[in-house]
Write a structure and sequence with these properties.
The protein is α+β, with helices and mostly antiparallel strands. Helix content is about 40%, strand content about 20%. The structure holds the ligand Nc1nc2c(c(=O)[nH]1)N[C@H]1C(S)=C(S)[C@@H](COP(=O)(O)O)O[C@H]1N2 and molybdenum atom (MO).
Amino acid sequence: MKRAILIGAFVGLSLSIALSAVFYLAAQVFDLPFIPFDVLDWFARIEQLGGAITFGIDTLIAIITAFGGQLSTAAKPAEQIMAVSGLLVTGAAAGAAMFAVLRRRAEASGARAGLLVSAVLGVPVTLISHSLNQPDVMGLIINTAWILGAFLVWGAGLGWAYEKAGAPATRDVSEAETQVTSEMPAEKPRPTVEMIDRRSFLIRLGGATAVITVVGAGLGALVASERARLRRQLLAEAAGVTLPENLPNADDPLIPAPGTRPEYTPLEDHYRIDINALPREIDGETWRLNITGMVDKPVSLTLDTIRAYPSMDQYITLACISNPIAGDLISTTRWTGVSLQRVLADLGVQDGARVLNIRSADGFHEAVSLDIINRDERVMLTYAWDGQPLLSEHGFPLRIYIPDRYGMKQPKWITDIEVSDIEQEGYWVRRGWDPVAQMLATSVIDTVAAESLVEEGGQTLVPIGGIAHTGARGVSKVEVQVDDGEWVEAALRAPLSETTWVIWRYDWPFAEGRHTFRVRCYEGDGTLQLETRQGGGGRLGGAVGIHTRRETV
Ligand SMILES: Nc1nc2c(c(=O)[nH]1)N[C@H]1C(S)=C(S)[C@@H](COP(=O)(O)O)O[C@H]1N2
Ligand SMILES: [Mo]
């Protein structure tokens, strides 16, 4: 019995690995849904389960970052590893359970059981995939046929493998067995013909699924990278906006300390956080922004209409509320779009309207009050980043910008805006996160550049540098402390805008040994940042506290 369970688990696992590879290849080549990601995304959206999934992902991220990975690059792979593992574990468990149950019922048919198991898994998974991807009628038919078909083949494989390697020995085989044993009355039990048959069947099965996996995953990865390249090329060509030659603070004399992060984040390095294992891919041609509710003139805007409005550019530092102190879930780029004030002016917002309830293609949603929009023209519907149409992972074709708020308040892939007198709590707010999510002041030491000493007035100095950010409230001062010395004021570079981070630098008189370096910043109005460490994350409203670095120089 124990053997049957082990064999069942092995068969289920091998077949599921191959199934994942085939799903992956089909997803890359034909845009068919990739089932493991759909299932994980679906589970993650269930409020009661979201916590468990977040816990699993956080654990994986902790493992990846412990091995030297970066938070911003570890987050998505962690999620994706979890998604695929989910399918593999389910497959192994299904195989083990099926072999165990069949073993109890001598006359049961493996084929029928395999079909039953594949239906039990395939049908709900098909429905989950539909609920997430919401395909049109044609897509519904194709996706259903594909997902159910793939699971049926997988289940047939399970059934067949049971007949070959899991079923109890038939009479013929046991006769052979007796012959073998009687001819050689060995002290040790010899492998029987039946056992050898089973073993070689399992080896062949493992080999075949390995080949399918390698070919499927390899081809899929090839197609994926080629498509990503083409897409970038197309986006670059389609770009109506171009990047200015010089950044607005190009003539600032302050040179960042060597090792300070780039002031303007290369687009491919911009952090990415959202509730999807894969970014939503939206067709810009058929996409519409529907603005409805308490307006005299509800509209359904095309991307071109939105682009035809007077555009504005803003240099913006975006941060995730889950960013830990000195984490890398914070980046700066140039955003292009149209002020929401300008768009709403055409629609006739009715008296009594208080809020914009915003919905996205991935089911994410947030609300922004009309108060904020009316007093801040920087609140912007954004269609370009870094002079290019938004990349799909950053919300193509449209996202919103709200100054001074963490990313969780700023939906990507926007499809609907309802002007209303009733606020609908945002996706993360419903899950207990900070409803305001105002960005907190934070400062970070990026570098203690002991290998780039500067000589000045007969002194040897160590350049120290990093960033300070206070949302849209400005940075008036940054101070550095070495060991238990005085807090000394650092030099500030002019920021790219009043909403981006500020680069600071302090040239510290060199003293050999092991030292503790600390940094803190003040907001535009002189308020000192919070100094006591706090956990951070959505529930607590962002990580705060002094960033401390110990270095030997
Ligand atoms: N539609 C949608 N918008 C979203 C999210 C999401 O999951 N879905 N995540 C938000 C969060 S938590 C953050 S931090 C920012 C990150 O934006 P970025 O990935 O472009 O850096 O997107 C926000 N907008
Ligand atoms: Mo976030």
